[in-house]
Amino acid sequence: QVQLVESGGGLVQDGGSLRLSCEASGRTFSAYAMGWFRQAPGKEREFVAASAWSAGTTHYADSVKGRFTISRDYAKNTLYLQMNSLKPEDTAVYYCYADHKFPIPKSPESWGQGTQVTVSS
Questions:
Q1: What SS3 class is residue 88?
Q2: What SS3 state is found at 54?
Q3: What are residue 19's DSSP bridge partners?
């Protein structure tokens, strides 16, 4: 199993930007598909974006297409989520995951601890 540690959440105004990071350890970074889910208060956890094992293959939820970009740094074993044009409805706890399925795993093998993103109007 791979261990995941997220960072980069915070408070930002409507229209602002944030970049989330997820550092992986414990297993071969390139052997996993990785991505992000999020969970807003009172709502179910929902898929946001995924990056396949090989660089360049990605998948996004319709709600974030054109605003969010997922990327991987294989030298640093780190996954990123660049979030631009943020909206109040993007407010949630964001969770990094690792799994062998792409694009959307039903039950990811590993989860990070979550990082809070709050977008004020």
A1: helix
A2: coil
A3: 82
